[in-house]
Amino acid sequence: MLDLELVRSHFPAFDSGKQPRFFENAGGSFPCRQTNDALLSFYDETKVQPYSRYPESAEAGARMDNSYVRWADALGVNETEIVFGPSTSMNTYVLAHALSSRLGPGDEVIVTNQDHEANTGATRRMVEATGATLREWHVDPTSGALSIEQFESLLSERTRLVAFPHCSNIVGTENDATTICSLARQAGARTIVDGVSYAPHGFCDIGAMGADVYLFSLYKTYSVHQGLMVLREDFADELPNQSHHFNASDPRKRMTPAGPDHAQVAAGSAVLDYVEATTPGHASLRDTCEAAKEAWQAHEATLAQPVLRWLDAHADVRLIGPTEAPQSMHRCPTVAFVSHSRSSSEICQRLVDAGVMASSGNFYAQRALEGVGVDPSDGVVRLSWVHYTSPADIEHLLAACEQALA
Ligand SMILES: Cc1ncc(COP(=O)(O)O)c(C=O)c1O
């Protein structure tokens, strides 16, 4: 069970009784104290070129190395399979460039229209440039969900690659990534899973999931502004080097054309210290992450019920995505809706006036909005929360929604 008081004590945003009513977590979460401390101490103590022989430099390198090891342990993969880049968009861009040498006419690539543009735009452009064929896996126009049946009807022996979101940043429901990856693998296709909207709600065992690539953004998981990409070794071996020629055999460097941000790489795993501090008593970091995921999601689901029920029952509201997730999947608390009578930007302004930190717009998921018949120029109102959100925050939100939608 989640100790909310303990959790919140680790976030400077809640210091001295501050109570931000923060519902824009899907845009970027508050960093935990461990992240801020690690970043500052790197700058104070070891902000030099790493991996030389003098102590400050050796220490800088050791802190960076530690981050790779810790994330590998957390995600159930090898240390050589962790890649840090400036953002998920940049990681997918570089990946798409590398993949372009692997595809040609006759090959097929499946993408969805549920994705944030980061996980689909670069791949679509790459497919077009190579002469391969793009197959689009469409959301259900009413629910916004992706069905496994439709995926199976698109999959064939020609499919080389499948890119899909673990969870959409609009629809909010977890997709069954393990089943999708397994079906793709049986067909001989590689998988790229956008975990950006899911990872704030739990760090998964990517080894067990079976994804060839899994991406998420650390700035949405209580950490620094970097993208983390898991790139499984046997797939990495097939891809050409994207860095300087002499970096070709270095797994940390071959998918990052520019030098990494040393301080952020080093501080990037401090969030795992936070997870351990708030989820004690487990034998391994992997087990700790699993236990934290369970506790976070149970808390999030309890907070979600009254909001989803209230929005679903409101005559002026169209809720995008389901009120409940399919069995054993998480309904991530990324809740998007439109009003039938007012623009999303007007509703959002009313919420902000009532003290709620939220946003409206298309959130770079224009294709998903078009797929469910929403005009992307006005978009949706999006309310998103995570495990540090309190019942009092939700009460405040519901009162603000009453006013905004009166
Ligand atoms: C689902 C999803 N995928 C990808 C991205 C892109 O991440 P980044 O900002 O790290 O490029 C975002 C950003 O909001 C997102 O929500």
Description:
This protein is α/β, with parallel strands linked by helices and 406 residues long. The strands form two sheets. The chain has a seven-stranded mixed beta sheet with strand order 1-7-6-5-4-2-3, sandwiched between helices. Strands 8-9-11-10 form a four-stranded antiparallel beta sheet, with helices on one face. α5 links the parallel β2 and β3. α2 packs antiparallel against α11 and α3 packs across α12. It starts with a helix and ends with a helix. 50% of the residues are buried. The model has no long low-confidence stretch (mean pLDDT 97).
Present the secondary structure layout.
Blueprint: H1 4-9, H2 33-45, H3 55-75, E1 82-85, H4 88-99, E2 108-112, H5 121-130, E3 133-137, H6 148-154, E4 159-165, H7 177-186, E5 190-194, H8 206-209, E6 213-217, E7 227-231, H9 233-236, H10 262-267, H11 270-278, H12 285-313, E8 317-320, E9 334-339, H13 344-353, E10 359-361, H14 366-371, E11 380-384, H15 391-404
Bound molecules: pyridoxal-5'-phosphate.
Residues 87-89, 116, 118-119, 165, 169, 194, 196-197, 217, 227 line the site of pyridoxal-5'-phosphate.
Integer-rounded radius of gyration: 21 Å
Mean pLDDT across all amino acids: 97
Following the backbone from N to C, one meets helices and strands in this order, namely HHHEHEHEHEHEHEEHHHHEEHEHEH
Low-confidence stretches: none
